[in-house]
Amino acid sequence: MDLIATIEDLIKFRTETGNEAEIKKAAEYIKQKFSGTSAKAEIFQTTASPVIFIRNTESLDFDAVVLGHIDVVPAADEMFVPKTENGKMFGRGTLDMKSFAAVAINSMLYVVEHKLPIKFGVILSTDEEKGSKSTESFMEAYPQISAKIVLDNDVGGDITKIVSKCKNPVFVKITAQGNAAHGSTPWDGIDANEILFKTWENIRKIYPYYAKNLPQPQNTWFDTVHFATIAGGKVSNIISDYAEALLDFRLTENSSVDNLRKNLDKCMEQGASYRIVSESTPVVMDENNSDILNYKAFAENIMGKNIEFEHIGGATDSRAFAVKGSVVIMHSGTGEGMHADGEYVEIESVKQIADIQIKFLEYLANKNSGGKI
């Protein structure tokens, strides 16, 4: 398979989350890659967004799975025309994460062409940028699915880092109820905006505010929150009787949702209440796990560089497998501009991820066969 050409083809599909026509075309393109091979490629769909499920076995008990997505955040037309300059490919999805969806396709083709004795699967969702409901539906439809190893390339930015920890994203909606009154007589009403602001101040006493123009913490492995959306009031001359905010908490494995609830209970002003909209689980891996260390050694040998472990605040869909006991190896290529203009990936890093992934799959197959391949 021509890896670079496949990436360019995928970039050209305008698979912004929710653009179902383009997503369907991209899914069919990927499915056709396996036409005439022994791999089983299907497009699973119970919701508006499909999941592309490829495997070389009828079993749902995999030795290894690659997890990823092909949807992207919105971008200008020109970002769906891939351009290569100075060893970098520019375009929407080059880093997040169509390049690595192509790597997964390449890995599956290698496995089936070389008949590696390994139960291998590729799962690509199409709405990851807006919550991965398709992945949730897929996992519910296949409750028995499991994988010893999950290769997760959706942690992008630096090929010299393997992510060993991801935080738990918890989204909380706060609402404030007041009493409307004319803006000229605030003593006749109760301002819901003020209730929300005071509640906000209480939360900030527990979870401080950080910003680029403020002193930077040396160690960032602690709980954080940002106020994602805020709304209150309808017109300028009426005291608001309702206000709401959506908060994005990121919790480490040393914290818990129960502890978050206790903190929020203490922060609510009279008239304010909260609801946990969604919660997940942190992904935390043992850096001394033998499979992770073997992967790391293969990567260092191929790259000719040392690799370090790092912790990130972002979430990952691989948590759906981590809670089942899978070893998750979170490693991606190098690039910048994820979700921004000028997004790019370093082409050499993509080729290296492809080589590392194949080398690791050969290692797993060799382990399965008792060292006979």
Distance between the termini: 23 Å
Helix content: 25-40%
Number of strands: 17
Number of domains: 2
CATH class wording of the largest domain: Alpha Beta
Poorly predicted ranges: none
Average predicted confidence as pLDDT: 95
Molecular shape: elongated
Rg from alpha-carbon coordinates:
23 Å
Q: CATH superfamily of the largest domain, please?
A: Zn peptidases
Question: Count of DSSP helices?
Answer: 9
Largest sheet, in brief, is: 9 strands, mixed
- Helix/strand class: alpha+beta
Here the CATH topology of the largest domain equals: Aminopeptidase
**Percent range for β-strand residues:** 25-35%
Element order, helices and strands?
Answer: HHEEEEEHEHEEEHEEHEEHEHEEEH
CATH architecture of the largest domain: 3-Layer(aba) Sandwich
